[in-house]
Write a structure and sequence with these properties.
This protein is an alpha+beta fold. Strands 1-2-3-4 form a four-stranded antiparallel sheet.
C-alpha cells in the first residue's frame, strides 16, 4: 500500500482482486453531501448512486464504473470498503513531517 500525494488530496494505492487502484480522499464536506444525495427520504443509503459517486470521486486510476464489476460483485464491494476505510483514516504524522522537511 503505497501512499501518494497530488493536487492537495491524500492518495493511496490499494490492490483488490489483483488490480491496483489509486484512491484519494475527498473533503469531509463533499463526502457528507454525497451521502445526503444518496440517502432516501426514509434515511436509507441508496447503494447504486452511492457507489457510483464513490468510485467517480475517489478512484483515480484506473477509472471504474459499476458496469466494470458486473460479474464480480465481491471486487466492487471490496473496493468500496477500501475507499471508505481510507476516507476514515487519519494521516500518519511521520509522513506529514517528512513532506514538510523535504
Amino acid at each position: 500500500m503505497k501512499k501518494l500525494q497530488a493536487v492537495g488530496f491524500r492518495q493511496q494505492e490499494v490492490t483488490v482482486d489483483g488490480v491496483t487502484y489509486v484512491i484519494q480522499k475527498i473533503p469531509f464536506k463533499s463526502y457528507l453531501e454525497m451521502e445526503d444525495r444518496c440517502t432516501s427520504r426514509y434515511g436509507i443509503l441508496q447503494k447504486m448512486p452511492y457507489l457510483t459517486e464513490l468510485f467517480n470521486h475517489c478512484v483515480v486510476s484506473p477509472k471504474v464504473s459499476l458496469a466494470d464489476f458486473d460479474d464480480n460483485f465481491g471486487a466492487a464491494n471490496d473496493l468500496a470498503n477500501e475507499v471508505e476505510r481510507f476516507l476514515k483514516s487519519k494521516p500518519k504524522q511521520d509522513a506529514d513531517q517528512e513532506e514538510s522537511q523535504g
